[in-house]
Amino acid sequence: MDRPANRCALILVGTLAAAWRASVAQALVPVPPALHLAHSGLASTSTTLSTLQIMATRAALTLGADQRPADDLVVLADNMAVLPSLPDAGYQLIYIDPPFNTGKSQARSTLQTVPDRKGDRVGFQGRRYRTRLLAESRFLDVFEDYLAFLEPRLREARRLLSKSGTLYFHIDYREAHYCKLLLDEIFGRECFLNELIWAYDYGARTKRRWPAKHDTILVYVKDPAEYYYDAEAVDREPYMAPGLVTPEKVARGKLPTDVWWHTIVPTNGAEKTGYPTQKPEGIVRRMTQASTRPGDWCLDFFAGSGTLGAVAAKLGRRYLLIDSNPDAVAVMRKRLPSATVNVCESSATPAARVRRWPSARQPDRRPSSNSPSRRGA
């Protein structure tokens, strides 16, 4: 494209896309041949865009200190198709809830219950009810080489953290010790800040071993001498033995420790989205309050239902959420109506070693895309 045509193109972008005006004019960059981007909407995943549209959307993903998009972003993509294109040190907080490698199918069903004398469920005073499946989403959580899958993504996470930034890595007992060694190698043991334990009391209890009722959150900082942490900004919790402290302390509450007792997302709670691995806002809010300031950028590249985005929006932070599952992005579009949604397709998806196939079953609706699924919050 010659210079006059390029200037006309920039003017057209400024006219048609007011939300991008500031960032597009400063951040237009070439697009790698393997990367194809479509703006706004799951229905446009197969759309071939003009060079100008691709450049504008690519610019929106370039979040440098001086080049910020106008909107918070949700991106449908394999995260390794997007992360390498983001600038160094652009994020104060990265929270990721990657697949736990459980070897099982993760599923969540949404049911509707109505009175029916011949129903399959019995309720209070013997009344019978019939249930109807409204939707069910599931994915297989199986990896041939879990650490090989995580390593390039964690190296990108370290690169993307600001000097005062913090990574919160959410995992369960099956892989936590292996992931700790990998994170020590990537960040350095001196950058390990905490092992947080999220404890909950829900679900079945095996009688063959101690029931597993916790997740692990490994906390690493970019620079152990420069990281940001504000304990006073965190919501306090009640004392377990209020009679042993002064009334003033009881009224104020105590700071949380590294063991967090917090319920899962309630079945009928306002937060519930129906996404299989949704995490409660309460635990993500603590991380965001402690490790960011208002206006800071937060990143989750296994975004799932978008819990980090929901928390960031309420606390006045900015966010970029990435997930390769169209079902997850559909949930986030509904949960985060003010966010801009981009679709990124790459012919060089680095997921050859990953054995995961999503499956979504919704009565009277077409099945979802067969692109790789991801866990997430």
Topology of helices and strands:
Elements: H1 3-16, H2 21-27, E1 35-39, H3 51-60, E2 73-76, E3 91-96, E4 105-115, E5 121-122, E6 128-140, E7 142-143, H4 146-160, E8 161-171, H5 176-187, E9 192-199, E10 214-221, H6 247-252, E11 259-261, H7 281-291, E12 297-300, H8 307-315, E13 318-323, H9 326-335, E14 340-346, E15 354-355, E16 358-361
Parallel strand pairs: 2-13, 2-14, 3-8, 3-12, 9-11, 12-13
Antiparallel strand pairs: 1-14, 4-6, 5-6, 6-16, 7-15, 8-10, 9-10
Task: Summarize the entry for a quick read.
The chain is an alpha/beta fold and 377 residues long. The protein has helices at 3-16, 21-27, 51-60, 146-160, 176-187, 247-252, 281-291, 307-315, 326-335; strands spanning 35-39, 73-76, 91-96, 105-115, 121-122, 128-140, 142-143, 161-171, 192-199, 214-221, 259-261, 297-300, 318-323, 340-346, 354-355, 358-361.
Determine the N-to-C terminus distance.
42 Å
Count of alpha/pi helices: 9
Strand content range:
25-35%
- Number of separate domains: 1
Approximate helicity band: 10-25%
What CATH architecture label applies? 3-Layer(aba) Sandwich
Q: How many strands, which pairing sense, and closed or not: the largest β-sheet?
A: 10 strands, mixed
- Under CATH, the topology can be stated as Rossmann fold
Q: What's the total count of β strands? A: 16
Structure classification: alpha/beta
Report the uncertain regions: 5-60, 62-67, 101-111, 133-143, 347-373
CATH superfamily: Vaccinia Virus protein VP39
Strand order of the largest sheet: 1-14-2-13-12-3-8-10-9-11
Which CATH top level class fits?
Answer: Alpha Beta
Compute the CA-based radius of gyration. 22 Å
Question: On the 0-100 scale, what is the average pLDDT?
Answer: 74
> Order of helices and strands, N to C?
HHEHEEEEEEHEHEEHEHEHEHEEE
Q: What is the global morphology?
A: globular
